[in-house]
User: Fold ABC transporter ATP-binding protein from Streptomyces piniterrae.
Amino acid sequence: MVRVPRHVLRRLLSVGEDPDAIVAAAPPVPLRAVFRRFWPYTRGGRRWMVLLLCFSVIGPVLDGAEIWLFKLVVDDVLAPRDLSPFLWIALAYLGLVVGSGVLGFADDVLSTWVSERFLLALRADVFRHVQSLSLGFFERRRLGDVLSRVTGDVDAVETFLLSGVANALYYLIQVGVFLGLLFYLQWDLTLLALVIVPLFWRAARHFSRLIKDASRERRRRSGSISAIAEESLGNVALVQAYNRQGWEQRRFERESVGKFRAAMTSARIRAVYGPIVEVVEVSGALAVMAFGTWKLAQGQLTLGGLLVFLALISKLYSPLRDLSRLSNTFYAASASAERIIELLDQRPQVVEATGARRIGRARGDVEFDGVSFRYPGTSRWALSGVSFHAAPGGTLALVGASGAGKSTAAKLQLRFYDPDRGAVRLDGVDLRDLRLSELRESVAVVLQETLVFHGTVRENIAYGRPEATEADIVAAARAADADEFIRLLPEGYDTMVGQRGRMLSGGQRQRLAIARAMIRDAPILLLDEPTTGLDAQSGRRIMEPLRRLMAGRTTIVISHNLLTVRDATCIVVLDHGRVIECGTHEELLAHGGAYARLHRLTAATAPTPVGTPPMGKVLS
Ligand SMILES: Nc1ncnc2c1ncn2[C@@H]1O[C@H](COP(=O)(O)OP(=O)(O)OP(=O)(O)O)[C@@H](O)[C@H]1O
Assistant:
């Protein structure tokens, strides 16, 4: 016999390490913990599961009865050559077939219903949970991997919990029924047939572990593939402009090859496992046949009895084999379950305090009081002892070099993160004591990168306030100076703007964002570089709607556009996370510091303040 060296076998049946893992594998979770975790999602379908269980008992009983009828045909009709009992045996057989058909139909429909309901509940909950996570989670994780968990891995959990359990029970019941019949027929032959069970069990345990490793690697690679696809297709313009298609392709292929290898390892494990199980099974069947033939010769068994016994043995071995295979399926599916559990175990960094306060409509008094903040996992302070105050209706401008901490301050204002030291207050109340939904309702944002959803212009504006009427939408669009261009679009307010608003120009997207903020009618307005990416003319064009939007609201504006900054009630100059200057335009000019330097330079380089070079280049 050819001996395969151990190390070759190990290499064939196990997955290698990946030193440059794009997506890390989820921590292992014991099978029992996986069950406990997902069992609650079966709520609502449990009584139907009991019914399915009854079907599982009835099914094998009907199967057993069919085989029994075969024994009667051999022993009572064929052997004595007597046709008289045939009619009722034939009728019983027909009845059994019809019964099995009806049962099969009910079983198929009901089990699909139970599984799909389970998936519905789980998927909705996973998505709800992911939505509840703080911005920090999404800034750390690869979006594609999260998507692959929410879609692909969720389905695998169903295999684990419902189909898996249902099948396991079904097989167990089959084994029980057939074992009962076999013992009734010939207890000594049955005992001999059962010798193979411990062998089955050992093989299943060993191979399941190998399968689990390979499946874990497969799911991890699926996550990496989704992540790369999402990143490169989402940034297709950048990829093409920099001719990086080849590089992206190689990254994608590297992960795909990883998945392919893991799939091949799984296939090899299953391929080795199949014949091993078969050899065990055939040995058992042969032993039974030999002993059975001896008993037949001794006259201790009829021919019909032996044939039925052998038919039942194959019926018994089939669920036994399926049971041992199922353990492979269980372990494979548990690799996906681990990825879902890891997702569900993520806790939002920002949580609403119990008994959080309601403030109703805020006045718009914003205060940063000695705020220091470090992004999780970093050692540098993004903000350090930052204090400023914006009175209701006032405009506070945050200026500073790139990386000075302006957007971070905006994130803290929206409570995407909590400060490590100090406090951010709204109307004198620490944001941590406020209801999160009320805080967010108090703020309307217009971001640097305007977010436009795939949908109509109308839907995009109404996103700021879903209950807005048609008149509100048009009024907001007019105030945002967007009504005119919207009416020129092919279908006016019903025009689809494409994913991320691709059908619109940068300035049009920006005006749509202003209309959305306008309709929200919040007391606080957060403008993060609202004129970035716009040419001088478009930049100037949105100034007027912006001013209309800012009127009567507390505005925090992060801008390089000195037109907005000049009018601010207070200008805060940030540098490396610290406030280095603070005052009105005139005060800061008179002070002759960083702001005055910037102003001199921008005045010298640009005729109008709109479209000036980034302040970062000057301050840093
Ligand atoms: N999610 C993050 N995780 C870790 N560090 C971050 C994160 N976001 C920003 N930083 C770091 O925090 C610092 C402040 O960044 P921030 O985005 O607030 O700067 P900014 O003043 O808004 O810059 P810009 O004008 O270029 O938008 C930077 O050093 C940046 O590298």
Notes: The beta strands are 366-373, 383-390, 395-400, 421-426, 429-430, 443-446, 524-528, 554-558, 570-575, 578-583. The chain has two domains: 29-344, 366-619. Confidence is low (pLDDT under 50) at residues 607-620. The first strand starts at residue 366 and ends at 373.
